[in-house]
Design brief:
Largest sheet: 4 strands, antiparallel
CATH superfamily of the largest domain: Hypothetical protein af1432
Helix content: 55-70%
Number of helices: 22
Radius of gyration: 30 Å
CATH topology of the largest domain: Hypothetical protein af1432
Number of strands: 6
Low-confidence stretches: none
Strand order of the largest sheet: 1-3-4-2
Number of domains: 3
Shape: globular
């Protein structure tokens, strides 16, 4: 026996084979989830085509709506245009999606429309009352959002900085106020190294997290940063400061846009490094598939930003300086630095491995990522080309031999300028020194100008003098 939402009488199922067809024909129930989902999706597409609009719906919302109904029918509704003036569009969209499971629409130019789609769980002949009812409910919800927006603006954004001390970030890492101070310290330090305006860095840091204690963000956590931008602008704040407040959480997922300028990127880096360094300092590393603090996502965000443009600051320095605000003991900090380097190395490895790069090539130039993150992808790409055209073991063997020579001599990491030529006796020693000295400036130029194809060929040229030396 079975019943449907629209068919109140019990339906006697004749056989398992007829279960779906009987419920469909008699009970007005589409049993198959994928069929219901496709019906909703196609109905939305049809309405959008008729209205020359586009829908704002992701797979999660579509799945949720599908699970809430058994005989879906799509209806086009409208809300009052006045809400465009009184509330940010992001608030309108989230109110429709999260609270009501409605589907917002945009016009052809990308602007938000006052039209939205409701998926009902019935098939009425007259839909007028259903439309009016849903529009009335949404109006009340949008009025609530408007109230939050106005109420938040009664208190200047900068004054909310003091409220952060009442919000615990982590019992071992302090409050949100403590976290903001650490981010501020990093932003000022790194800002000086890449020639940012220090006053902008201070202002931005002082405003960056204040929207977390507003009514609107409490209602819609997804709007963190976005509401900070709107409140900053409403108070006459600089547009680039406001944009940076919103951009600090980017990239939030794979394929997301990056912060727009260097100030915004620096805040985003400060935020992500503070998070990772803080958690590493209290031994909270991700284990297996468990990553409750989204450290892996933050690390990938860091890499995306550092590889988007050339910064006058290295990944190694960013790691060291971010850990220094948590760990004062040098020996303990060195242990944490290695742990953080290993964590980020893993993210680099898996990120590029998923893109199809060879594991040996990734590992061969891994250290370069910590010196020049921006150029790392270019080097890796050229290394793959070289490895395809020659015996890659040849190149790796040359590198290994040079490394071993330096380590045995106790001068690992030093360049040819520190070598005393008077101590060279054997012809092979002198030839190797002269050859490396000749190529030194050439290789420096090649690396600085991302001429990694020429750089790798220069490295291969070391084969004969290295073999003669041995």
């Amino acid at each position: 026996m079975a019943t449907g939402f629209l068919e109140k009488n019990e339906i006697k199922i004749k056989s398992a084979l007829e279960y779906e067809s009987q419920l469909f024909e008699v009970g007005k129930v589409i049993v198959n989830f994928e069929e219901r989902r496709e019906k909703i999706n196609q109905s939305v597409i049809n309405i959008c085509d008729q209205e020359s609009c586009k829908s704002i719906i992701d797979n999660n919302l579509l799945d949720e709506i599908t699970a809430l109904c058994e005989w879906p029918t799509a209806l086009l509704c409208h809300f009052d245009n006045e809400f465009f003036i009184t509330s940010p569009k992001e608030c309108l969209i989230l109110t429709m999606q999260r609270h009501q499971k409605y589907i917002p629409l945009t016009e052809e130019d990308g602007s938000l429309s006052n039209k939205f789609i409701v998926i009902t769980n019935n098939a009425p002949k007259d839909t007028t009352k259903i439309k009016i009812g849903n529009e009335k409910v949404l109006r009340a919800r949008l009025n609530d959002a408007h109230f939050f927006f106005l109420k938040d603006q009664e208190k200047p954004l900068i004054e909310r900085k003091h409220d952060l001390s009442a919000v615990m970030y982590h019992n071992l890492l302090g409050t949100l106020s403590d976290r903001t101070k650490r981010i501020k310290s990093l932003l000022i330090d790194w800002g000086k190294k890449i020639n940012l305006d220090t006053s902008d860095c201070i202002t931005l840091a002082d405003l960056s997290k204040n929207d977390l204690v507003t009514l609107m963000v409490n209602e819609f956590p997804e709007l963190q940063g976005t509401m900070g931008k709107y409140y900053c602008l409403s108070e006459g704040g600089k547009s680039h400061i406001a944009e940076a407040i919103e951009d600090q959480y980017k990239p939030r997922y794979s394929g997301d846009s990056l912060p727009k300028d260097r100030l915004a990127k620096s805040l985003a880096l400060s935020d992500k490094f503070e998070l990772i360094a803080g958690l590493i300092s209290i031994d909270l590393m991700p284990t297996g598939d468990k990553d409750p603090y989204a450290m892996k996502r933050s690390a990938l965000g860091i890499l995306s930003i550092l590889m988007s443009e050339k910064f006058e600051i290295t990944l190694d320095y960013l790691i060291e300086s971010s850990l220094s605000i948590f760990i004062s003991n040098k020996a303990k900090r060195e242990v944490a630095v290695k742990k953080m380097q290993g964590f980020i190395s893993d993210r680099i490895f898996f990120f590029f491995k998923e893109q199809g790069y060879r594991a040996d090539c990734i590992m061969a130039c891994m250290k370069f990522a910590f010196v020049d993150s921006y150029s790392f992808p270019f080097l890796l790409k050229e290394l793959e080309k070289v490895a395809m055209n020659i015996d890659s073991k040849e190149l790796f063997l040359i590198n290994k031999r040079i490394k071993n020579i330096l380590e045995k001599a106790g001068i690992s990491g030093k360049n040819s300028e520190s070598i005393d030529q008077n101590l060279l006796v054997e012809k092979a020693e002198k030839d190797l020194f002269l050859f490396s000295s000749h190529l030194y400036e050439q290789i420096k130029f090649q690396i600085a100008h991302n001429q990694f194809d020429k750089y790798l060929k220069s490295c291969i040229d070391f084969k004969k003098p290295i073999e003669d030396f041995f």
